[in-house]
Amino acid sequence: MSEEPSPTDAGSTDQLTHTDEAGNVQMVDVGAKPDTARRAVAEGHIHLSESTVEAIETDTVEKGDVLATARVGAVQAVKHTWETIPMCHQIPITNIDTEFRILDDRVVLSVAVETTGKTGCEMEALEGVTTGLNVVWDMVKAAEKDSKGQYPGTAIENVHVVSKEKHQIS
Fold first, then answer.
1. N or C: which end of the chain has fewer CB within 10 A?
2. How does pLDDT run across 74-90, given as a tens digit for each residue?
3. Where are the alpha helices (DSSP H) in 62-165?
4. pLDDT at residue 11 tops 60
């Protein structure tokens, strides 16, 4: 459910909502919008070596509990999105759910964010995923480095919005 028409929907880039007619950046005025219940889910994964994934799964990473630390990082990022994404509004977060799935060569993180307000929360969900996965990387980077100190097989990938919903408040 889209709040504003996208450039593709409108058939023109003249419909961009964060710029004025002169091309100046502006925050969208959402003051006249009604409050609605909103939920967004984002997901992404970090590709890791199988031995690193096993260490995460068995909680034997030297720095500590990787998933617990990443969960805290994801929650903090959601709550502070308005401070890092310039045109995001500060919104009241009513709920955050994080879910990790461990596969043979990756850790998948889903972040669901809920709010009641005048604007969506998909950027908050995306910030939660990217920061949560960055925390995973930070926690396991010693195990992921090759002999030259590089990370040839480590990658954060496929970060995207899975779903976005809004419902009128009764």
1. C
2. 999 999 999 999 888 89
3. 66-79, 81-84, 122-144
4. no
Question: Is residue 27 a known part of a binding site?
Answer: no
CA distance readout (Å), 10 to 26, 38, 87: 20, 24, 21
- Other CB atoms within a 10 A radius of the CB of residue 142 amount to 11
Question: CA nearest 89: which of 123, 114, 113, 131?
Answer: 123
Report the predicted TM-score, pTM, of the whole model to 2 decimal places: 0.83
Which positions are annotated as active-site residues? 138
User: Is residue 167 marked as binding?
Assistant: no
Annotate 42-88 with DSSP letters as a single string. Answer: EEEEEE--HHHHHHHHTT--TT--HHHHHHHHHHHHHHTHHHHSTTP
Neighbours of 12 (CB within 10 A): 10
Average pLDDT of every residue of the chain: 88
Query: Is residue 1 marked as binding?
Result: no
Q: Please, what CATH class does the domain formed by 37-168 belong to? A: alpha beta
| Domain segments of the chain as ranges | 1-30, 37-168
Q: What are phi and psi of 18, to 5 degrees?
A: -105, 15
